[in-house]
Design a protein that fits this description.
This protein is α/β, with parallel strands linked by helices. It has helices at about 40-50, 60-65, 95-110, and strands at about 1-15, 20-25, 25-35, 70-75, 115-120, 125-140. It has a single domain (about 1-135), classed as D-tyrosyl-trna(Tyr) Deacylase, Chain: A. Strands 1, 2, 3, 4, 5 and 6 form a six-stranded mixed sheet that branches.
């Protein structure tokens, strides 16, 4: 499981021009990729790691601040671009495997106390954000 985590001042995700998830205060935007061997335990471990990362201002975590988290599924995080010009998506888990992991990740964050906003799994989405810092990390378990 792989995540790109961005500290944001605000962020939103829209599907067909309708906002489906939004945070309007400092928080985290998480782009989440799932591969074939990811498990519910990995989803929970990644959620815990991200929730406790001390990347908010003042070396505090989202947990310390009760900051909101916007989670967007993104299979392209597992693109293989080593050969040619066309990325391979073979390392990305298919929808029937990755959607439950995405839901488990979001549920694990919520169980830790996060205010979780979500995109729509598998939908074409427009993601808008104001990166604060900028702070952007790649986190894997």
């Amino acid at each position: 499981m792989r995540a790109v985590v961005q500290r944001v001042s605000r962020a939103s995700v829209a599907v067909e021009e309708a906002t489906v998830g939004e945070i309007t205060e400092p928080g985290l935007l998480v782009l989440l990729g799932v591969t074939h061997d990811d498990t519910e335990a990995k989803a929970a471990a990644l959620a815990g790691k991200i929730w406790e990362l001390r990347i908010m201002r003042g070396e505090r975590s989202a947990s310390d601040l009760g900051a909101p988290v916007l989670v967007v599924s993104q299979f392209t995080l597992y693109a293989d671009t080593r050969k040619g010009r066309r990325p391979s998506w073979s390392a990305a888990a298919p929808g029937p495997v990755s959607e439950p992991r995405y839901v488990e990740f979001c549920d694990a964050l919520a169980a830790l106390g996060a205010r979780v906003e979500r995109g729509v799994f598998g939908a074409p989405m427009d993601v808008a954000l104001v990166n604060d810092g900028p702070v952007t990390l790649i986190v894997e378990v």
